[in-house]
Amino acid sequence: MRTSQTLISTLKETPADAEVISHRLMLRAGMIKKLASGLYTWMPLGLKVLRKVERIVREEMDAAGAIELLMPVVQPAELWQESGRWAQYGPELLRMHDRHTREFCLGPTHEEVITDIARNELSSYKQLPLNFYQIQTKFRDEIRPRFGVMRAREFTMKDAYSFHIDQASLEETYWVMHRAYSNVFDRLGLMYRPVEADTGSIGGSHSHEFHVLADSGEDDIAFSNESDFAANVELAEAVAPNIERPAPSQPMTELHTPGVKTIEDLATTQGIDPAQSVKTLIVAGAQEGDWIALVVRGDHRLNEIKAEKLPQVASPLRMAEEQDAIKVCGAGFGSIGPVGLSIPVVVDRAAAVLADFACGANKPNYHLTGVNWERDVTAAHIADLREVVEGDPSPDGKGILEIKRGIEVGHIFQLGQKYSEAMNAQVLDANGKAQTLSMGCYGIGISRIVAAAIEQNHDDKGIIWPDAMAPYQVAIVPLNMQKSEAVAQAAETLYAQLTDAGIEVLLDDRNERPGIKFADMELIGIPHRIVIGDRSLAEGQLEYKHRAAPDSENIAVTDTLTVLMSKLGLA
Amino acid sequence: MRTSQTLISTLKETPADAEVISHRLMLRAGMIKKLASGLYTWMPLGLKVLRKVERIVREEMDAAGAIELLMPVVQPAELWQESGRWAQYGPELLRMHDRHTREFCLGPTHEEVITDIARNELSSYKQLPLNFYQIQTKFRDEIRPRFGVMRAREFTMKDAYSFHIDQASLEETYWVMHRAYSNVFDRLGLMYRPVEADTGSIGGSHSHEFHVLADSGEDDIAFSNESDFAANVELAEAVAPNIERPAPSQPMTELHTPGVKTIEDLATTQGIDPAQSVKTLIVAGAQEGDWIALVVRGDHRLNEIKAEKLPQVASPLRMAEEQDAIKVCGAGFGSIGPVGLSIPVVVDRAAAVLADFACGANKPNYHLTGVNWERDVTAAHIADLREVVEGDPSPDGKGILEIKRGIEVGHIFQLGQKYSEAMNAQVLDANGKAQTLSMGCYGIGISRIVAAAIEQNHDDKGIIWPDAMAPYQVAIVPLNMQKSEAVAQAAETLYAQLTDAGIEVLLDDRNERPGIKFADMELIGIPHRIVIGDRSLAEGQLEYKHRAAPDSENIAVTDTLTVLMSKLGLA
Asked: Average pLDDT, whole number, for chain A?
């Protein structure tokens, strides 16, 4: 493509209402244009990227045996009433009625429609397993659309739905999808992690989120530096320290600590290492009226999801008000500790191996030091209560944990029989008996991936596309092409050569200053750039630069195709 | 693909509410499934066809220099209010409001959105011409959706919009699009005609509809048997007969014709050839209160669009009531003729060369025979008034006209400044002066093409896909594959060979009777079929049959790939 034959409309200014870097860069590079809140037109350059993601997703889904179909965007209310979601779904479901006042919605997801198809089309276990997918426009009426296509109202999803006679078959397809998703992100050239996710209220034994790692992500992901292990920080297990608790060496001593309310206060005023202290939190027990004390190390944070899963503790988790704490412990927040409490105490694994530690004395303005488990207070219940931190051992025993922020771009999920039961989707099993179908569902946010890739790959000049996602793989920037016949001819020859070799090239044939051309190509993020100028040409050379490299290198005109094929991994 | 790994769900029964053959066959072949009135899921087989049409359209649009983008399905009311169409568009425009009660619609077309983009992105004539297109989901809330995807509410369109500094540039792109559309339908392998269409109220000097020819079409298309000429019957010129009017040979004679009301009555009761008579119609004149008599040959039909364009005639055309005719002519319908009338008479070209013709006598129950122009009545105004009929000379002077029914699947159109003026879309011209953009628009009904192709290509067994549109080009039907190792092996070998050669093959590996497999492959319409059975295999032969051929032929196993490549036009 020549810049003169397409629309390059880059912006110098940073758009006012763009909060994240991908949104700013997509607007500045002319990849998207805002039509209304949360509604974007994919401009030619942006659409090329979107289509590349689509193609890779499609190829991997096909390779994994999934079958493509295309369901309508507009869905009748009746199916949603049948599944119960017409009432459950909030205002994110955009509802409307047609000219005959029949109710419809714009599909944010297609479980109902596909389950309706399955119950009509499938009659026997012999047809199973089947995995249907589509790549399609979805709509979610977000209360506050933001971050451009990262959280738009209209967006492109790949959603797949698999149907099975039993859980074993569902598990099998689930892991095939896990592999297919990994292939997709590998091929896209993105740093990502499949992350174990909470299966939440829907149940099913497995759920993974696929996160693209980027500083601007909304989720904290803990992953091993040596293995595939990755989990949302909220779900990652903090393994028990592989040490014996030291024997007590200090007497328990009461310390007057006026004004000390926090672990940090204790450290600054008394010089006590937070890792050598514990904090105690009072939460409602599973039995109405009961209270439970949870103890974690002073430098650790309680993980509320883990706490909530304890059998002793009320779910959802409810923290005690200060007056409750005073009633139960004899002191308010800041002076509570495990010693002498009459309520059950659950101790985190890391806190349980401390000796000679500090804690609140359950007496206003007093703390204890030299406290020891067993000698001074029992640690009958030990559990994993805290959030993991960087440097913790990986729960799979391999390596230590790193924590990075992630952007969720995919989610695979075992739905089980939630929809098939509500909508009575059954087939006959091998014994001729009707069985409710088991379902899996597997989503990838196609348009979101484009934004996430930019969040991960950019610098202050603009986007740095991985080769597989770049709108064009190579930019040819001829200098002074309008005046120099030699430059024009070299540019045209190279353009024809590369195009013939199946490489996507953008030839910047605009009559603009070099600085403007360089800035535009960098902003747009084309990974490989060839500059053709009279001076180097006289020496039979061109200038090559990778978008992410600090410097350019000279290559012989005659070697250009070979060098580029090799840089692109094509030769 | 193997039938065991996809979903083949054909129906024996003809679905009750499917009125046209394409709808019936698409449902029976399992290409589409109805979700709600006018809303269809494209099932795996159908989607493969849809994608092939999409791909060919995309390739031809790209080759024609059009640039792909993707606009949202959901559009804000504001833009439609600006163009004036929010008020003009009827209930086909599905309107809705979001959670903040802002008004939106589902786009039936995208002139407003693209014009908004153009006015924001384009500033100079140097950027022009530009032609943007998208392939996208559209919604039109038809009052009575019918004929399956032929007239669905949700459908897939390719719509393109070009922008120009002047009419000359618009004309140029218009003809590029005309060529691109012809390429698309040529490549799809469909019989079609680009048909001159009425430019109607929007103006612009050209408009063409692209019609796929099929008996079930809604429009009558007249086209030359020797040239490219084609026009909607309503618009085709009936050229003046290339003959001299014969000299009168009979006296004008009054004939008592009680009960004769029509030309057919005159023929049956009096033996008068309709082609030797004229009929006279009274219509309102351009001046309030005036009446005009229009005369066409007895075997011809008045073309109302042509009549309406006469300067003497009121527009829209208004036929006289019988009491008006009696007042003006002295007789009612069935007895009117041109002789002795006091109102202006306009005579069709074919009627004007008659001699010794018959007509009403303007006297109840009487006709005249042996009437001659000039001698008995003047034919001062001669015009093209009638609809063309088969056998008429083509207006371009080449060949004669055939008339066939057509299904409109494409429309190219010069919009001129209708939207750019309403929405103030301007650029600076070479003199630095603001100029309102000229626009063209170019649509193709992608999903409709699939149905139209079936209307044109089917028999009583099912669909007959042109190679370019077939979901699979070749079907391999092994007989008794589950029991015969030789058959299974030959089938697998051929499947691998063809797949490696880039041919799309459906291997029917189901454990079904041959009759069921044959019927399914015929219904689905796969153009090339290979049957593999033990008997022919023993002789080193396979059976080949083209879907449209009456009989099969034997080919040597060793020649199969070569033969198929040649049948597919690939070698």
From this structure: 94
User: Please, which pLDDT band fits residue B199 given cuts at 50, 70 and 90?
Assistant: low
What's the whole-number mean pLDDT along residues B170-199?
94
Q: What are phi and psi of A94, to 5 degrees?
A: -80, 115
**Closest listed residue to residue A117, CA positions, set A67, A52, A53, A47:** A67
pLDDT of residue A536: 92
d(CA B137, CA B71): 10
pLDDT value at position A199?
Answer: 66
Assess A127–B contact: CB distance below 8 Å, yes or no: yes
C-alpha separations of B85 from A203, A424, B419 in Å: 49, 44, 10
| Nearest-5° Cα angle at A342, A337 to A347 | 50
Answer whether residue B77 shows pLDDT above 80: yes
Query: E strands, B101-198, where?
Result: 103-106, 130-139, 154-164, 192-196
Q: By the CB < 8 Å criterion, does A11 face chain B?
A: no
Task: Tell me if A138 sits within 8 A of A109, measured CB to CB.
Answer: yes
Locate A357 and state its tokens.
């530690």
Percent of all residues in chain A with a pLDDT value above 70, rounded to a whole number: 99
**Measured distance CA(A196)–CA(A178) in Å, rounded:** 11
Q: Is A354 helix (H, G, I), strand (E, B) or coil?
A: coil
Q: To probe the interface with B, which of A3, A7, A79 has the most B CB atoms within 10 Å?
A: A7
A458-485: b (≥16 Cβ within 10 Å) or e: beeebbbbbbbbbbbbbbbbbbebeebe
Backbone angles phi, psi at A59, to 5 degrees: -60, -40
pLDDT range class, residue A205, cuts 50, 70, 90: low
Q: What average pLDDT does the segment B122-150 reach?
A: 95
> A396: which 2 tokens?
């799979």
What is the residue type of B28?
A: R
| Rounded-to-integer distance, Cα B98 and Cα A392, Å | 47
Mean pLDDT over each residue of chain B, to the nearest integer: 94
Exposure class string for B272-299: b at 16+ Cβ within 10 A, else e = bebebbbbbbbbbbeeeeebbbbbbbbb
CA distances from A345 to A251, A364, B38, B342, B438 (A): 22, 20, 63, 114, 78
Probe site for chain B from A59, A96, A110, A114 (most B CB atoms < 10 A) = A96
pLDDT at A203 over 80: no
- Cα gap A231→B21, rounded to integer Å: 55
The residues in A 226-265 lying below 8 A from B, measured between CB atoms, are: none
Instruction: Tell me whether residues A73 and B130 touch, CB distance under 8 A.
Output: no
How do residues A76-103 score in pLDDT, each as one tens digit?
999 999 999 999 999 999 999 999 999 9
Domains and their CATH numbers in chain A:
17-237+403-454 (3.30.930.10), 253-383 (3.90.960.10), 474-568 (3.40.50.800)
Q: H-type helices in A433-532, by residue range?
A: 446-456, 485-500, 514-524
- Count the neighbouring beta carbons within 10 Å of the beta carbon of residue B433: 10
Give me B162's structure tokens: 């070009």
The mean pLDDT of B45-53, rounded to a whole number, is 98
- Mean pLDDT across A351-379: 95
Token pair, residue A406, equals 């992630």
* Cβ atoms of residues A286 and A311 within 8 Å: yes
Burial of A571: CB neighbours in 10 Å, binned 0-12, 13-18, 19+: exposed
Q: Residues A112-138: pLDDT tens digits?
A: 999 999 999 999 999 999 999 999 999
Are A155 and A138 spatial neighbours (Cβ–Cβ below 8 Å)?
Answer: yes
The secondary structure of residue A245, as a DSSP letter, is: P
CA of B79 vs chain A CAs: smallest distance (Å): 10
| Among candidates A7, A65, A143 on the partner chain, residue whose Cβ is nearest the Cβ of B5 | A65
- Tell me what ipTM this predicted complex has: 0.89
